[in-house]
């Protein structure tokens, strides 16, 4: 994979993280709970990145 593609994938992952954080904040602000299993990663960004990139590779 070339540098451009790596940067594009990382940018997509960062957007995903931002969207996820926005969703979590809105759910919590509304007094609701996140879906079961939502935080499977326990805050491990590398685990999330690995899964995201694996899915990205297959699409």
Helix-strand layout with pairing:
Elements: H1 3-29, H2 45-57
Give the key terms.
59 residues, mainly alpha
Question: Would you mind describing this structure in some detail?
Answer:
The protein is an all-alpha fold. It has one domain (3-29, 43-57). Helix content is 68%, strand content 0%. It contains two helices and no strands. It has helices at residues 3-29, 45-57. The longest helix is centred in the first third of the chain and has 27 residues, at 3-29. It starts with a helix and ends with a helix. The relative contact order is 0.13.
Mean pLDDT score: 90
Rg calculated over all Cα atoms: 13 Å
Total separate domains: 1
User: Could you say which structural class the secondary elements and strand pairing correspond to?
Assistant: mainly alpha
Unreliable stretches (pLDDT < 50, length at least 5) are: none
Strand % is under 5%
Q: Quick one: overall form?
A: elongated
Say how many strands there are: 0
Number of helices: 2
Could you give the order of the helices and strands? HH
Please give the largest β-sheet: none
> What is the helix content?
55-70%
Distance between the termini: 15 Å
């Amino acid at each position: 994979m070339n540098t451009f593609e790596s940067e594009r994938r990382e940018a997509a992952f960062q957007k995903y993280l931002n969207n996820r954080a926005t969703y979590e904040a809105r759910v919590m602000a509304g007094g609701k709970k996140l879906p079961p299993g939502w935080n499977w990663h326990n805050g491990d960004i590398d685990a999330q990145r690995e899964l995201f990139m694996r899915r990205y590779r297959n699409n």
